[in-house]
Amino acid sequence: MLSLCSNIISMAIQSLAVFCGSKNGTNPVFSQHAAELGKLMAENNIRLIYGGGSAGLMGIIADSVMQQGGAVTGIIPKLLLEWEVQHRGITELIISDDMHERKRKIYSISDAALILPGGFGTLDELFEIVTWNQLTIHDKQIYILNSGGFYDHLIQHIELMKAEGFLYEEAIKRIQVIDQPADLLPFIQ
C-alpha cells in the first residue's frame, strides 16, 4: 500500500463520496474493484454518495451496493441527466442545478471521499476536494484507490509537488492511497 502521508487518519464513517469514471476503462480490474467496493460498503453499512450515473464505474458501484442491500444517494446535475443516463434503481436521486451544486451537495453529505479510476471529471473532483481541505472549507479524509497502478504517475507528481514545496502539509496528510478495496476497511471502521 502506498501512502502520501505518514500520519494515518481513520474514522468510522456512515457515508462515502465515490468519484469515478462514467466509462469502465480498459483494465478489467477497474470494474472488479468498483464491484468489490460496492459490496464492502453495503456489508459495512456505508451509504454510497456519488454522481448519480448508471454508466461505467459509477453504475457498477451503485449496482453493487444496491444488490447487497445497501443505500445509495446519487446527485446529478440537470445538464447530465441524459448524457450520464441517471440511475433509476438507487435509493435516492437528487437533481442539482449545475456541476458546482452537485459537488457541494456530495461533499456536504459525505463523511469522506474515495477516488477510483476515471477521467477529467474524476480528477477535477479529486483536486477540488483536496483544495477545499487546504482552504479549511472541510477536513474530509480522501482515499485514492490505485487500481492496477492507475494513479502511479499522479502519485509521483503529487510527491514531486510536495518535494518542491508547493503543497501544504495539512492537506497532504488527508490523502491515503490504497491498492485494493479491502485496504479501506482499517480506515473506516
Overview of the structural elements:
The protein has helices at residues 28-43, 56-67, 99-109, 120-134, 152-163, 169-172, 185-188; strands spanning 15-19, 47-50, 72-77, 92-96, 112-115, 141-145, 175-178. The protein has 189 residues and is α/β, with parallel strands linked by helices. It has a single domain (15-188), classed as 3-Layer(aba) Sandwich (Rossmann fold), CATH 3.40.50.450. The protein has a 7-stranded parallel beta sheet with strand order 4-3-2-1-5-6-7, with helices on both faces. Strand 5, helix 4 (120-134) and strand 6 (141-145) form a beta-alpha-beta unit. Helix 1 (28-43) packs parallel to helix 2. The longest helix is centred in the N-terminal third of the chain and has 16 residues, at 28-43. The protein is globular and about 45 Å long. The mean pLDDT is 91.
Structural class: alpha/beta
Distance between the termini: 18 Å
Number of strands: 7
**Biggest sheet details:** 7 strands, parallel
Shape: globular
Quickly count the helices.
Answer: 7
Enumerate the strands of the largest sheet in spatial order, edge to edge or round the barrel: 4-3-2-1-5-6-7
Number of domains: 1
CATH architecture: 3-Layer(aba) Sandwich
Blueprint (SSEs and pairs):
Layout: E1 15-19, H1 28-43, E2 47-50, H2 56-67, E3 72-77, E4 92-96, H3 99-109, E5 112-115, H4 120-134, E6 141-145, H5 152-163, H6 169-172, E7 175-178, H7 185-188
Parallel strand pairs: 1-2, 1-5, 2-3, 3-4, 5-6, 6-7
Helix pairs in contact: 1-2
